[in-house]
Amino acid sequence: MYNFEFAKPSSIAEAVEALGHDEAQALGGGQTLLPTMKQRLAAPATLVSLNGISEMIGVCVNDAGEVCIGGATPHATVAREAQAQYPALAALANRIGDPAVRSRGTIGGSLANNDPSACYPAAALGSGATIKTNTRDIAADDYFQGMFETALEEGEIITEVRFPVPEKANYQKFVQPASRFALVGVFVAKFADGVRVAVTGASSNGVFRWAEAEAALSADFSKAAVEGLSAPAGDMISDLHGSGDYRAHLVKVMTGRAVAAAG
Amino acid sequence: MPTDHGIGASSKRREDLRFLTGRGRYTDDINLQGQAFVHFLRSDVAHGRINGIDTSEAEKMPGVIRIFTGADFEGVGGIPCGWQVTDREGNPMREPPHPVLAQGKVRHVGDPIVGVVAETAAQARSAAEAVVLDIEELPAVVDMRKALADGSAKVHDELDGNLCYDWVFGSDDAAIDEAFSKAAHVTTLELTNNRLSPNAMEPRVAVGDYSWASDESTLYTTSQNPHVIRLLMGAFVLGIPEHKLRVIAPDVGGGFGSKIYHYAEEAFCTFAAKQLRRPVKWTSTRSEAFISDAHGRDHITTIQLAMDAENNFLGVRTDTLANMGAYLSTFAPSIPTYLHGTLMAGNYKTPAVQVNVKAVFTNTVPVDAYRGAGRPEATYQLERLIDKAAREVGADPVALRRQNFITQFPYATPVAVEYDTGDYNATMDKLLEMIDRDGFEARAEASRKAGKLRGLGINCYIEACGIAPSALVGQLGARAGLYESATVRVNATGGLVVMTGSHSHGQGHETSFAQVVADMIGIPENMVEIVHGDTANTPMGMGTYGSRSLAVGGSAMVRATEKIIAKAKKIAAHLMEASEGDIELKDGQFSVAGTDKSVAWGDVTLAAYVPHNYPLDEIEPGLEETAFYDPNNFTYPSGAYACEVEVDPETGKVQVMGFAAADDFGNIVNPMIVSGQVHGGLAQGIGQALLENVAYDENGQLLSASYMDYAMPRADDLPFYKVDHSSVTPCTHNPLGVKGCGEAGAIGSPPAVVNAVVDALQRGGYAHVTHIDMPLTPARVWSAMNG
Ligand SMILES: Cc1cc2nc3c(=O)[nH]c(=O)nc-3n(C[C@H](O)[C@H](O)[C@H](O)COP(=O)(O)OP(=O)(O)OC[C@H]3O[C@@H](n4cnc5c(N)ncnc54)[C@H](O)[C@@H]3O)c2cc1C
Predict the structure, then answer these.
(1) Which of A40, A80, B16, B384 sits most deeply, having the most CB atoms within 10 A of its CB?
(2) What distance in Å separates the CA atoms of residue B3 and residue B9, rounded to the nearest whole number?
């Protein structure tokens, strides 16, 4: 790790100001950024911690009935506090990493990083969430732009994520044996006006919606409806832990299981 | 019989107080006055020619003290190999040089090229980034079969190819050909034994120190055998006589073999400390550990079994390619030969057994012993083969094994070893009691209803440990003896300090060794302290590996304690004015047989050091004895293991539902510690079978270079084990009758897991799946099912 300055603002406005400096970078839980810095693969001049900004931490429900999660809220808090309103989301948060990771890692950090194997992107895209930043609201459909790529501008902070609550939902995570990130993860959400299916871990373009499954499930929300589909084609990741074909197969299996578990 | 103290008691591990409360003292906790830090710039290509190293910018960086390259080590020896294997023509193996820092070429990703010494570790690392390397990348040799093909690139230009040796062992060609020509059935299996990274919890660390006033060098290092390091580094690398070199291995956080070997970083720190007249420290990162700690296993094997029409084993023939990596690590050549070929008879009275091993150089990290070392590879191939054979001829896998068990001891195998004792039916009977085999069908039916395939795998193992008879291993090419030593020092007030040449790095020696000595004298265990790990205050010993410490080191302790008792009896006889032959020692009291006269242990020890009333004309004062023990034979622990799995046919995921281990370790000193050793071994064996794998791409880049891609077993990957070690056939040739238990779990478990998965798939209708190579990841199992 190289030397760096450290700032811990207590408001969004101060954080935005601090991030305006040259080579300043936001620090969420540091679960991705700090290991990268230790390996000397990142060298920000200033780290701006978002962990002291109380308006960015916590879970609540807004007038529209959406579950709103502050951008600096750790996974463990989501697992605990979203349980009543959005159990599928809470369950997803509760299976990220290990207790230490869940106590530090944040939803904003996870979505900003957009790791192709991360869990939250599936929940955000699958729920049709809104990513609120210090400057604008971004629909999940516009936010994810490929592996590690998002719609965020330089210095833009995720301050809140708003999740519409579906009638039924479930996340199925098939873990990569070493990292225990998602080898394939599928988030299925059934809303009054249709079903959304978001897939993480599988594609080299990052999280994506599986349109065929959405259409089939919107017509018939059952495991059988998934069984009739062919596995999604496209640019699947192929690595030590599984071929593209295997991942495509798992997408179908996990989708079916998510539907069955959603009830 | 369990007791509450002494031999047979589950005494709590006294060392755990400091380990569990963070008060252990590891090598990285040692920080010396004026200490500097080294950072190694390592090769990021698998194979390349060094055309230039420009350190000029780096030298100007803050805090830099000195930058060393291969040229600085030209007058210094290379890292030696401790074992010479002779090939089928009687020629010695090819033994290329292994420089401390790369000279001319780099030969694997991680090969150290430059050592930058600076005031802080961060400064050393920054300066290393400023070193400019001009390396011309060469074609990498990764695949062993390709390495042996004509026209392959060569890891070592001075050799005629990449073959280290071509070794044949056991029955002669005529005998083996006859066995196969008579066979009614021949079973053939091709398999790989996956390469593993040892992953001790504590990464390696070395601190070199030098005193110019006394011309003495000291090395603090994470070692399983400080005396071996002193001998190898002093005599072969740096030319420092042993009385001027002290090696200290304090608390060490796990080794599993990887801390046996003498590594370049140790020699570097010792050498640089002398050059710079300052202590020099290196602490490995986990990332460096993956590319610099010796790996384990990595065999490609074809094995065949010949059976007659009644399913009697007639012959076993096996051909293995064994990866040596880029250089010969300390014991590397002996692992696939003398620790592997000698076990190929297994638990069976097969009359003809022939083993061929070709050891191969590749542009990968050196491969050496890893928990079990050679014996897991032997057990895996044989026990997988027997399972396959049973299926092919429609025999019950347990019955087929029993039918061919060795039942008469001693038994001389066709592969040069003589089993002193054992009872393979006893451990198999025990195992069957533990696993409810009759209830399996009902469990399988329940799994089937839940959409899962259930399978049961059973196998046996035998291993050779208590390493090793020096004269025998000397004939086989070992360049060292493999005795062990102990000094027992009794203090005036009766407490004892036992100095052992073996080394504890997780095994609990401080507890179990104290139990042995205390038991012999009949005093509380807390009167005995065990000292290990420092060449300055322990007798020359060979360290800890090969499940040797109790069998060999414990035997030395017994011999030394016997000498103590013999002398103490003389003193007691004098004190009680009795004849020496009438003195009895029980519960720490010396008494005169047939009388009520007695003196306590403490009276005798005090007399030894305050010899006012003492037979000075007959014996010396003091009470301190040393013994060296060289075993007559290996010890042969054996057992039967069973694994039950569920396979998810939709994903290929394997879940271990149960695991049982019935072992015969001979006599048991501390049952709790033995169970713990078996548990740890099973975790590593199940890890090898299902999760762990070192993978290189075709350019020699390590793909599994961190825990993001190298899968270590976690608690929820493992079941609650059932372990039993109540089947005891005491070792016939050591005084404690013990065999050793450190490696068994890792040796016996991989075939049980794979047998179980194949069984599950076969029962589930996947008749084409007769084998899957480890690790049985979900992706591999799914591919096999759908292949
Ligand atoms: C051992 C381990 C296991 C893990 N397992 C999983 C898993 O199973 N599933 C999973 O999904 N994830 C997993 N993770 C990732 C983890 O959950 C975190 O979500 C992730 O590391 C990023 O969150 P963070 O708060 O730590 O972000 P940081 O590491 O602090 O930052 C990551 C990036 O996001 C930026 N950033 C941080 N906060 C914001 C913000 N509010 N607005 C804009 N940019 C921001 C930073 O500048 C940086 O570029 C694991 C991590 C570890 C270390």
Answers:
(1) B384
(2) 5
Are the C-beta atoms of B371 and B387 separated by less than 8 Å?
A: no
Strand partners, B302: B190, B319
Same domain for B425 and B521, yes or no, is no
Distance CA B101, CA B112 (A): 5
- Separation in Å, CA of A247 to nearest CA in chain B: 9
B529 belongs to a structural domain: yes
Stretches in chain A below the pLDDT threshold 70: none
Residues B263 and B351 in one domain: no
> Of B340, B39, B304, whose CA–CA distance to B177 is shortest?
B304
Which residue type sits at A52?
G
pLDDT digits (tens, 9 = 90+) for B304-337: 999 999 999 999 999 999 999 999 999 999 999 9
- B162-182 confidence digits (pLDDT tens): 999 999 999 999 999 999 999
The pLDDT of residue A67 is 98
List pLDDT tens digits, range B35-82: 999 999 999 999 999 999 999 999 999 999 999 999 999 999 999 999
Residues B239 and B104 in one domain: yes
Report whether pLDDT(B620) > 80: yes
| Distance (Å, whole) CA B155 – CA B324 | 11
CB of A71 shorter than 6 A to ligand 1:
yes
- The parent domain of residue A104 ranges over 54-163
- Indicate whether B623 and B725 sit together in one domain: no
Of A102, A136, A163, the last residue of a domain is: A163
Q: Average of pLDDT values for B383-397?
A: 98
User: Is B1 inside a domain boundary?
Assistant: no
For residue B775, whether the previous peptide bond is cis, meaning omega lies within 30 degrees of 0, is yes
What's the rounded Cα separation, in Å, for the pair B323 and B359?
6
Query: What total number of domains does chain A contain?
Result: 3
B590 & B646 share domain: no
Of A240, A243, A246, the CB nearest to B709: A240
- Establish whether residue A28 lines the binding site of ligand 1, counting it when its CB lies within 6 angstroms of any ligand atom: yes
- Dihedral (Cα; A117, A121, A123, A127), 10-degree rounding: -140
Report the DSSP beta bridge partners of residue B447: none
Q: Do B695 and A249 touch (CB under 8 A)?
A: no
The finding on whether A109 has its CB within 6 A of some atom of ligand 1 is yes
Neighbours of B21 (CB within 10 A): 8
In tens, the pLDDT along B223-260 reads 999 999 999 999 999 999 999 999 999 999 999 999 99
B644 in the same domain as B688: yes
